[in-house]
Design goal:
alpha/beta; Aspartate Aminotransferase, domain 1; 2 domains; seven-stranded mixed sheet; five-stranded mixed sheet; globular; transferase activity, transferring alkyl or aryl (other than methyl) groups; amino-acid biosynthesis; EC 2.5.1.-; transferase
C-alpha cells in the first residue's frame, strides 16, 4: 500500500474533513490541485466513446466531471455519511437540481413554510409552472405534515434549524410519515452542517447544502451540494450533465479548504452564539430571542437530541417595529450588514425586507417574521466585541 492509499473507512470526522477526496497527481502535490480546464483529452476515439457512454471511468467535460469538484464531493459525502454527493453552482441550484431530477408534473411536495424566502419562491413561483403541486406546513407540527400528505406526494422538504427563527423539525417522526407516504425526505442542513447534525443518520434520504455558508466559512464563493444514495444522486448528475448548474473547480477547491476547519469553526460559532443569545435575552429593548440553545426555545430539547451544538445563527425581536429594527441595525459599527451567513465575520440583517422580502405580508405573518425581527449570524470575533457592538444598536432604539 502506498502512502496515498491510506484507508479511511474507520477514520473520524476530523480526519475525513482533511484527508477524504484527496487524489494526488504525478507531481506529488501536498495541497489539492485546481483543475481549471473545460475539457479533457482522450487516448483514442474508442476511449472517447467509452467515456461518453459511461462504459469506462474518466473525465469527460467539467460541466459534470472535474477532479477538483469530485474531491469536494467525496469529502462532503464522507462527512455526511453518504454514498455520493453532487456539487452545484449554488445552494439554490442544489435544491432546483434535486427537484427537477426527482419530481415530475403531477407530483406533490410538502414543504416547511419555515424555509429560506428564495426556497419558498422556487416552490411557489416556478415548480408550480411545471405541474408540481406544493403544500406549505409549519415545520414543528408533525400533524400538519401528516394532514398535508396526498396520494401523489413524492417529497418532504425542510430545513432544520430554520431560517431565521431556528425552529427544529422532528426528523424521526417525519421519517415515519415519509415511509407511510412512500416519499423522499429532503433536509437542508445549511445551519448545522455535518459538524453538528447528520440528517441521513436521522432518517433523511437527501441532504442539501449551500456551500456558500459554513462549508466555505469566509464568504468567498458561491456553491451548493446534494448528498445521498447513489441511485438518487445519479439522477441529479444526469440533470446536471444536461442543464449545467455546475460548481466551478476553483470554488470546489475553496470549499475543500473550508471543510478542513469546519468542526472547529462550528464549535466556536456555537459557543459565541449561545453567549450572545443569553446576553440578548437580558436586554431591555429585546422582546424575544430565537435560538434553539436557549431552554426557553420550544425546540430546545429536540435540538439537543438531533444536534451536537446549536449553531451560529440567532434572531431577536426589538421593541417597536421596522423603524426601531432599522435604527438598531444602522447603529452597529463592527458587524457586517449583509444577507450572507456562515462567515468568520458576524453579519446582521433585517429578514422582513431582505431575505424574506419577496414573500407576501400574509406569508411572513404565518412564519412569524415580524418587522421587529433582526437576524444575526455570530462570527468568530471576540464575543465581547460582538456584544459591545450590538449594544450600540440596542441603545439607539427609541433615541
Amino acid at each position: 500500500m502506498s502512502r496515498d492509499e491510506h484507508p479511511l473507512d474507520e477514520a473520524g470526522p476530523d480526519t475525513l474533513a482533511i484527508r477524504a477526496g484527496v487524489s494526488r497527481t504525478h507531481e506529488g502535490e501536498h495541497a489539492e490541485p485546481i483543475f481549471t480546464t473545460s475539457s479533457f483529452v482522450f487516448d483514442s476515439a474508442e476511449d472517447a466513446a467509452a467515456r461518453f457512454s459511461g462504459e469506462s471511468q474518466g473525465n469527460v467535460y467539467s460541466r459534470y466531471t472535474n477532479p477538483t469538484v469530485r474531491g469536494f464531493e467525496q469529502r462532503i459525502a464522507a462527512l455526511e455519511g453518504a454514498e455520493q454527493a453532487v456539487g452545484t453552482a449554488s445552494g439554490m441550484s442544489a435544491i432546483l437540481s434535486t427537484c427537477m431530477a426527482l419530481l415530475k408534473s403531477g407530483d406533490h411536495v410538502v414543504c416547511s413554510r419555515d424555509v429560506f424566502g428564495t426556497t419558498t419562491g422556487l416552490f411557489s413561483n416556478y415548480l408550480s409552472r411545471f405541474g408540481v403541486e406544493v403544500s406549505f406546513v409549519p415545520l414543528a407540527q408533525v400533524d400538519a405534515w401528516r394532514d398535508a400528505v396526498r396520494d401523489n406526494t413524492r417529497m418532504f422538504f425542510l430545513e432544520t434549524p430554520s431560517n431565521p427563527l431556528c425552529e427544529v423539525a422532528d426528523l424521526a417522526a417525519l421519517r415515519t410519515l415519509a415511509d407511510d407516504a412512500d416519499c423522499l425526505l429532503v433536509v437542508d442542513n445549511c445551519f448545522c452542517t455535518p459538524a453538528l447534525q447528520l440528517p441521513l443518520s436521522l432518517g433523511a434520504d437527501i441532504v442539501i447544502h449551500s456551500a456558500t455558508k459554513y462549508l466555505d466559512g469566509q464568504g468567498r464563493c458561491v456553491g451548493g451540494a446534494v448528498v445521498g444514495r447513489h441511485e438518487l444522486m445519479d439522477q441529479v448528475v444526469t440533470f446536471l450533465r444536461t442543464c449545467g448548474p455546475t460548481m466551478s473547480a476553483f470554488n470546489a477547491w475553496v470549499f475543500m479548504k473550508g471543510l478542513e476547519t469546519l468542526r472547529l469553526r462550528m464549535e466556536a460559532h456555537s459557543r459565541s452564539a449561545l453567549d450572545v443569545a443569553k446576553w440578548l435575552s437580558q436586554q431591555a429593548n429585546v422582546e424575544r430571542v430565537h435560538y434553539a440553545g436557549l431552554e426557553s426555545h420550544p425546540g430546545h430539547a429536540l435540538a439537543r437530541q438531533q444536534q451536537r451544538a446549536f449553531g451560529g445563527v440567532l434572531s431577536f425581536e426589538v421593541v417597536g417595529g421596522q423603524e426601531q429594527a432599522w435604527r438598531c441595525i444602522n447603529a452597529t459599527r463592527l458587524v457586517s450588514l449583509t444577507a450572507n451567513l456562515g462567515d468568520a465575520k458576524t453579519t446582521i440583517v433585517h429578514p422582513a425586507t431582505t431575505t424574506h422580502g419577496r414573500l407576501s405580508q400574509a406569508q411572513r405573518d404565518d412564519i412569524g417574521i415580524r418587522h421587529s425581527l433582526i437576524r444575526v449570524a455570530v462570527g468568530l470575533e471576540d464575543v465581547d466585541d460582538i456584544k459591545r457592538d450590538l449594544q450600540l444598536g440596542l441603545t439607539a432604539i427609541g433615541s
